Give the backbone structure.
Amino acid sequence: MQWTSRVLTGQQLDAFWRDGFLIVEDLVDPDLINRMAQQADLIASGKASNIPDTFINLEKQFDATGGAGYEDRTTAVRKMYQLARHDQVLNEHACSVSVVDIIADLLRTDDLKLYNDQLFMKPAFHGAAQDWHQDSQAWHNMFPMDLVTAWTAIDEATIENGCLWMATGSHRWGMVPKQVKAEIEALFDEDWPTAPIELRPGSVSFHHSLTYHTSSPNRTANRRRGYATHYMRARTWYDEEIRARPDLLPFVSIRGREFSGCV
């Protein structure tokens, strides 16, 4: 089916499919970013009754204490997930026209579902690094492997406070087998180009689920909150015999039709 781009230029589309990622500056309204920031802190504090505590992960060093010893537990939280299913503010963002129109252009369809969402808190001074990975390594029962993540900056994301880094064009390799993963990752920086994804609050980076990416630890006094929403075509299908994480059935329809035998 012929697809006419709704918001992205031909140059932007070419850049995404060449590099595996695309940055769109100042996409999200500042008022919504402020409300997302407030809601992120409320949920992380443990005071949001609509979010189960099992959806909140602490930084590794705080797991044993449950964040005890901190007046504000938000300083101990690493990430939270499945929020859009339960929270009105974050669902508003996940379903927003400004974001979903870009997803539709990238996937060339208005039949879309939300796979999952994750809100990364990356607290000041001790926000942990994330190793190089492909998202489809965790989602390897979903076919085709071309889900798209919209990573929205709630705070400024900088090299110093642990912004994302992308391995340019790595989505074109397909799924990298575990036995060569270390060898491939050793090529980054010196033999293969990588790019820091520095973002202002309200700017969004979009990346393919096979694009290698990472983030560094946060050693600064400034936290780095970011909200990642993961989208797929409604015609995506999953292999029930392959166990993968997370197990999120039924998936949430964001726009358009649903199809029998698909997600």
In short: The chain is about 20% helix and 25% strand. The mean pLDDT is 93.
